[in-house]
Structures are given as C-alpha cells and as structure tokens.
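Pilot study result, target chain (134 residues):
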Amino acid sequence: MMVFALFSAAVLIEALAAQNYWLTFATNLFGLMFYGAVLFVFGFSRRIVRALTCILGCGAILTVLFVVEYVLFRPVLGAGVAGTIATVIVLWSVPVEGHIVSRAIQQHWLVGVAIAVAAFILQLGFQSAFSART
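Predicted structure:
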C-alpha cells in the first residue's frame, strides 16, 4: 500500500516527480530502522513487526490523504493553500507515529511523540545529506 501511495504521489503531483525515489526509499527505511532500534532498546523487540506495520500502514493512508487533498484542492484554492494543508497532513504523521511507538513501548504519549520528532529530524537530516550529492 505504501508503494502505491508513493507512486500515486509521484504521478499526480508534478513537484514530486523529480525526486530521487531511491533516496526516498532509503529515508523511509532509515526511519523504520530507527523505530525498530527504539523498540529493541526498550526491550519490546517482539513488537517490532506489529509496530512497523502500523507505522507503514498509517504512513500509506496519510500519503493517500495528502495526494487526494492536494489534487482536489489545488485547482480550487491554489497551490499555496493546498500545499500548506498538505504540509499539515505530512506533519500530522509525527504524532500518529508517536502514538504507535508510545503504545508499543508502554510509555506516555509524549515520550512516543518525542521519539517520532527525533525520527523526523533524523530522516530530514539523512535526506538532506544525501540529496546534496545526487
């Protein structure tokens, strides 16, 4: 489902068509490995598959929502407003992933959100470090 969501984003949104797909894949994999390492460190390695499946599934749903919103609202509201709403949808993935991680490691929701913010920052850093070379 995530592959379909990313493919539809690349096909329907012209700004995303020029991106490096291998870098996007590597960035997503890096984030999943970070979450897996967090679960391992907290002693919940038996929940890695379930937690990562939830993160991938929610990411796919939010990506489809992002694409649908942008494609439908861009002609009506303009690229600026549609882009802002799309950015809010992308940023909404941080508390969603934080909730999933917090339940998986049996910690408070804010601990999970802090871990998700760290993962988001690491992914941005990873992507910017390697996109300068491509």
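One observation from the pilot: Residues 117 and 123 are 10 Å apart (CA to CA). A full batch analysis is planned for the follow-on phase.
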